[in-house]
Amino acid sequence: MKVYYIGVHKKEDKESIELAKASDLSEFNYFIRSQVGNLLSVFTGTAAARTPPGKGLQIEQEALGKQYVFHTFSHRAGITAVVITDKEYPGRIALSLAMKVADEFTAKYPASAYANITQASLANNPNPLPYPELNALLTKYQNPDDADNISKIQKELDETMVIVHKTLDSVLERGEKIDSLVQKSDALSSQSKMFYTQAKKQNSCCVVM
After folding, report:
1. What's the burial of 122, exposed, middle or buried (CB within 10 Å: 0-12/13-18/19+)?
2. What is the pTM of this model?
3. Which of 102, 143, 149, 173 registers the highest number of CB atoms within 10 A of its CB?
4. For position 150, what pLDDT does the model report?
């Protein structure tokens, strides 16, 4: 079981802006970790932007030869917390963790703190809202048995709050595809886009074989 990523996003219509994150991509080859991280950021941004206020999403998505689950919770203050795990990680704990992160982030930072943050402003100041707590949570929740204080949040997480999707494509509007969003993304370099395309072709070849 593995937690790959915990992040906080500011919702912006059909897109979102990553305000804070912690990730563990140590199982990937050192030379591709940057590309993997960039692609996961695009995927998390897509999932975050499509999560209705006060709701949680659980989305299974195959990428780069692995099956991931994106767990999101959208806080009514305008931010969405995202947790990425493997398929074996307990979904309810991951979603409860997303809810915990959203609650604690908004308790630390009022909406006015991130109201004027844009993708352009992040280029000059990539870490405007320091949130080191994510690194500690990422380490702690690698073992879901250590989720000792999450039970209260789990009780608050009513089943009606959770929407389950099979793929990221299923949360997009008609005519949209995750492939096209990757190619249009301003957050990805041409190298990362090429890496995504090549990895997808490689996976398709493996399936055919």
Report:
1. middle
2. 0.78
3. 102
4. 63
**Domains in the chain, number:** 1
Cα–Cα distance for residue pair 49/70, rounded to 1 Å: 13
Torsion of CA 84, 90, 92, 95, to 10 degrees: -10
How far apart CA 16 and CA 204 sit, in angstroms, is 29
Q: How confident is the model at residue 207 (pLDDT cuts 50, 70, 90)?
A: very low
User: What count of other Cβ atoms lies within 10 Å of the Cβ of residue 118?
Assistant: 10
**CA distances for 87 relative to 4, 17, 67, 71, angstroms:** 11, 26, 6, 11
The amino acid that residue 93 corresponds to is I
* Start-to-end Cα distance in the chain: 28
Q: Is 137 left (phi over 0), alpha (psi -120 to 50) or beta?
A: alpha
Over the range 133-157, which residues count as b (16 or more CB within 10 Å of their CB) and which as e? ebeebbeebeebeebeebeebeeeb
CATH number reported for the structural domain that contains residue 65 in this entry = 3.30.450.50
Output the six-digit token pair for 131: 């949130």
User: What's the angle, vertex CA 27, arms to CA 24 and CA 33, rounded to 5?
Assistant: 70
Q: Which residue has the tokens 């994106």?
A: 70
Domain with 164 in it: 3-208
